Structure prediction request, 263 residues.
Amino acid sequence: MADTRPLLFFDSGVGGLSVLAPARALLPGAPLVYAADSAGFPYGTRSESEIAARVPALLGRLAERYKPRLIVIACNTASTIALPHVRAALDVPIVGTVPAIKPAAEASRTRVIGVLGTQATVRQPYVDDLTARFAADCTVLRHGSAELVELAETKLRGEEADPARYRAVLDGLFEQAAGDRIDVIVNACTHFPLVEAELAAAAPHPVCFVDGGPGIARRIAHLTQGQDWPDSPSPGIAVFTAQPDPALAPALAGYGLDRIETL
Prediction:
């Protein structure tokens, strides 16, 4: 009998779809559940203690309902704050999301890197540690933006935004000292790859954007190697902690999430 246990992806909003997409491409037969804590959105402006308490409790409820074989915390903010608490609470393999500073340092020629995330992520000591380990010879500039999270959510609802709003966000990086030498930007929030094209168009000069999605997909494949999957993919499930916006349905269907539920 085929193993129908799903992969469960968790985020505060729709940003984790940028992590689900490469995993779905690599493991097309995998059943998928995508959980968005829409009642708690956005995480980037919440306190660390609130996130550390909220995320393990929610994932416990989701694990009880959907019986996942593996959980991906597809949110940089939740991962950098709550990952140890979730691993202590649940007896399920947990994959977190961290800023892709290592590949950014490997790609940078100018040795000036931008890290674009939420306010909660860019101030984390974890970012200091990643910088010291993988980008010690680089200037690493950080900028936190809650507005860019909202812009990504807006795009997924099929709405357009003024390009000047993207330029204003990027000014937070490029107007810092040495910012004019940035050649690689880390999208350190899973929402941001969803608007990468808009960011690239708004940048004052060509830059390379990197994120953790492809690496996470490879990690999921490694951890589930040898496991059974259904012969054909089942309809994916999108579950929200508050009543979802119906305008999201077409975008969710594009990621294979045809059923929508609330927790």
Strands lie at 7-11, 32-36, 70-73, 94-95, 112-117, 139-144, 184-187, 208-210, 236-240, 257-262.
